[in-house]
């Protein structure tokens, strides 16, 4: 190998000056001895970026990865920022929890030391806990902020650092950039304290596990209904998998408190195991992730499967049908089911529909929006991520609305306002309670879903992704969608001229044989109804070219030039969004069609299949670009 440059050698030396962890010091030292420039560049050159999702990366040495040094730097920066921004921050303290992943306990201890050394109270969970319990504690204790050390359902070699603001919701701008600036300061780049024992021997530190556990479980009784067994006295029989995560103990406590029949465990997956030995990906959404649970359910004769992801903030379910097949509910289907249950329960508590607020993300089903319209409920769509939904619900609460329900299609649900984040534990208890009640009345969950379709319309979706590890190719694909191809005819595009920066946007007029009726591009900041262009008399540059007008074209959601996100609606009732992932090398798409009352479900599914093919072949050009 070529000799190391002075610059990368200096970065490595700086790392070794900071690092006190034997394993990661050894990794950098050995790469130095080998003159392995390529590996050192990947690990050291570009520091891990703090954003609205906090930190998440592979656990290795280097400024670009999750390790003790980067966790200490993040904690020091967060403490500095919170002290400046949040009133009485030190007295109110910070809540710190962690899951069972490799190094999570160590990262929690070092984070606690960073705050304690600055005079903050630290409310901590010594043992691993589900993410919702940490989120609950931030709001319950009125802390200045919260930290959860977890990588959720990422592969076993990853870890993360999730931050909650003083309102109990995840951080949003401008706090993310403010925290990032504090982390990057010279003062906070140098680890000031490296002491894993400090939290155990400090008057400012308090293990809140027992107190918060009890209060969290008590809070779930707010949604308890009388679901005693039917005349047959047969309790609901169901199987639960924790996906090798930390959910089992808290789920057990909630099920007992709600007076529900206890689950049959998937024994091979019920206890925490950071290696996730029985699943390729510890995510209930992934194909095959519920195979072991299905095997157990069939062995014991259970007709229902429920699951959490490893940190128990997500929830999934499947139900055996009369023909013996298993119906796995999509995230959107569960969202519609939960939304209906919550609306019913809040009405029964005497809360008028027009005082209830519900939200979901822009890539989630429009069925919740239709439900809200029919029932007279306050509704809003948000950008993807629970940070946006929770903060929007807090905004509605401040306006006098009752926080009702929020969800995202990636199996995340917020049932109670005591946890301003997705909460797979409460969702599980609530689901089992309602499944028990439906069984008492001779119905299945799937039959209940079909009744919702009959009432609000048949909404069918297809969400998937293309793997693309080349950022340049990703940019090229979105550029063609946004600006057209050089050989395309102008008549094939909806053309928008933006005079301010002399840009001509050229979006497709037809996708999959269906006319495009609405476009929202949150990367460049454009949104419009196609049919309204001429009626608004915006055209000024000749046939089929419309001049950009800020007032008319400005999107109703926040734009970001740092990521790609485009939404199309077509004249067959479809809406689909293409976006890049912030944490994975993927181009994701979210497609849904809302059927008209006179349409058969098969017709709707046929149109969906046409658009799935069109997204692949016409929009992304997967074969041409070599994407899976």
UniProtKB/TrEMBL annotation:
Location of this chain's protein in the cell: Cytoplasm
Gene3D superfamilies (UniProt xref): Alpha-D-Glucose-1,6-Bisphosphate, subunit A, domain 3
Cofactors: Mg(2+)
Listed name of the protein: Phosphoglucomutase
Lineage: Eukaryota, Fungi, Fungi incertae sedis, Zoopagomycota, Kickxellomycotina
Keyword Phosphoprotein: yes
Residue ranges occupied by any Alpha-D-phosphohexomutase alpha/beta/alpha domain in the UniProt entry: 49-188, 216-321, 331-456
Keywords of the record: Carbohydrate metabolism, Cytoplasm, Glucose metabolism, Isomerase, Magnesium, Metal-binding, Phosphoprotein
GO cellular component entries: cytoplasm; nucleus
Xref: SUPFAM superfamilies: Phosphoglucomutase, C-terminal domain (SSF55957), Phosphoglucomutase, first 3 domains (SSF53738)
UniProt keyword annotation of Acyltransferase present: no
UniProt GO molecular function: magnesium ion binding; phosphopentomutase activity
Family of the protein in this entry: Belongs to the phosphohexose mutase family.
Primary location recorded for the protein, binned into one broad class: cytoplasm
Biological process according to GO: glucose metabolic process; purine ribonucleoside salvage
Native organism: Mycoemilia scoparia
